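Worked Example 4.2. Consider the chain below.
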Amino acid sequence: MEVFIQQLINGISLGSIYALIALGYTMVYGIVKLINFAHGDIYMVGAYLGFFAIAILGWPFLPSLLLAMVVCSMLGMIIEKLAYKPLRNSPRITALITAIGVSLFLEYSMMLIVKPEVRSFPPVLTDVQYKLFGSVVVSSRQLIILVVTLALMMLLQYIVHKTMIGKAMRAVSHDKQAAQLMGINVDNTISFTFAIGSALAAAAGVLVGIYYNAINPLMGIMPGLKAFVAAVLGGIGIIPGAMTGGFLLGIVEAMVSGYGKSLYRDPVAFVILIIILIVKPAGLFGKNVREKV
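Applying the procedure from the previous section yields the following structure tokens:
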């Protein structure tokens, strides 16, 4: 029982990171129906920006987190303007291939700039272990990851449901042409969506650096794919679904690792993807919609 609870705590920490990245996937898909495979690399850029702010500038945790989020939100908007906007009326496969190209561009550009070796993330936060009962412990880093994630999720819910730009995002997601006829600036709304999603991915990158103490230019590939699995698991295009999917995937992975099958933690994520696509392709929170003919 102690092993189960310990892995549940570990899974919630890992799932928080997947959920933050998955939110970007699901928001962009909800607005422009694009699976942005470069999203995992924005998470990597966010981790390096956090590293730069902490190790080079000597900034504390929160200003470093904010710097990474602001710069990555601008990066997300630039990518959208240069790479995706010209293809908005093109077939989806064109935009998908472009997203893969942007992903490779970001990975190898970063490799050129910061070199390919793994870097140790500076210990900006003191790691304190709190004993709950028996051998079950929770660390201060895990608590900080959970608190930051929940705060960002609540902020996102507020923006989406209580602000004008959030209403515009929901309108564009529902019917882009009707939203345009009602006077909503669709281009600005899409750019804002990319900015928010990229900021959340950057936050996840900094949190991963603090949690695992290591970053590298290819660190966005696997978490990016798993966050995509989490978004599909919850129902891609549905914000609560992405949050739930991220936490579920993190808990499942931690359970697999905790019970001595750590080699299977990556395959399990993709087995979940296959099962959900066969059993419930719309995801846990999605509804199957029949196309009229």
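Strands lie at 119-120, 129-133, 136-139, 214-215. The chain has eleven helices and four strands. Compare this with Example 4.1 before moving on.
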